[in-house]
Design goal:
Elements (H helix, E strand, L loop, with lengths): L3 H21 L12 E4 L6 E17 L5 E18 L1 E11 L20 E11 L2 E9 L4 H4 L12 H6 L3 E10 L3 E8 L15 E8 L23 E16 L7 E19 L2 E11 L5 E3 L5 E4 L3 E11 L4 E12 L8 E13 L3 E12 L5 E11 L1
Antiparallel strand pairs: 1-2, 2-3, 2-19, 3-4, 4-5, 5-6, 6-7, 7-8, 8-9, 9-10, 10-11, 11-12, 12-15, 13-14, 15-16, 16-17, 17-18, 18-19
Length: about 400
Amino acid sequence: MFSSKKTTGLVLIIVSVFLYSVSSAQDLTKNKFGKGLTFVAEDSSYSFKFGARFQTLYQGVLNLENEEYSDRFLTRRARLKLDGFAFTPKLVYKFELGLSNLDISGGDIQQLGNASSMILDAVLKYNFCQNWTIWFGQTKLPGNIERVISSQQLQFVDRSTLNSRFNIDRDKGIQVRYDGNKFRSISAISSGEGRNVTVDNEGGYDYTQRFEWLPFGQFSGGGDYSGSDLKREQKPKLLLGVTYDYNDRASRQRGQLGTFLSEERSLRTWFADAHFKYNGISSMISYANKVAPKGSVILEPNGNFKEAFYTGTAFSWQAGYLLKNNLEFAARFTNVTPEKITQRNADDQYTLGMSKYFVGHNLKIQSDVTYINEMNGDNQIMYRFQVEFAL
């Protein structure tokens, strides 16, 4: 198997050769900053778009109990993306790699082949009939809206803890999607164990169904799956969504994410969310509930606690207002309440954020401060400052 360093080096060599070939051709592109590099075959048999982005983050945390301060600089995300169509515009592909340490995991996990888990998306999308499309491959499941919104398009520096602890994330499988003007349906069957797993399927499969209702019609420019009202909707727009997910005999702590545990449990997850935008005002509400009907805790032979799946409930609400100079102020409240039997602490988080958009979400700076009130733990204040850059 390739090591993480060797794999990353190979990717960089391929990208360098590609970029050198483009520069050597002396072609001028009409693309704009943030739109990537796009090429279309002379006979229109395929298209190819290359994009790259990264996030540079500073994070500092003050422990209010002992007054200790810790901080760090991170390359939060660094990614390469290829997409386009092949043979017909109805057949679309997307391929995305994660290159930062926080995007790569699995080097010491047997189920991931003891190799770096670099591939984020590798999916084909075929529009086989009017509003119907079938997806095949590895990509995000249709879970909570906050997870499906790209990390590039977020209103805050990062997603809420509702998402990090309860989302169903990426997986490999098949999705069938219906996209109407006011109604959408997404059905998915996937492996249930997350991205880049190489061993035979453990347990059963994962079944996901999401419904979305847009009572006032479509958002401008896909704004329903983007944070902040950068399009400044002239009329109110609202998305109401609900998702049910059943992961049959899951083997990982959070279904598609987390540690592989010594026993399996089926997990049932409900998501409900709403997204509203109007004239620079935006608001998003999310709710999550995850249970293991046969019990989330795994016990030692002597009856002592050994491991637990991550189950419980969470609620998050955020809202922001975008000024005419593209400076935005936003606030968010998040409550996470794990099941007590799992021996995890509940917490509330209160976040205030400020963002400045220079070229939409492609070039922006974001900053936020969060008060973390953790039950049976130390309260903290976290400060973050991040720059997003996307070609």
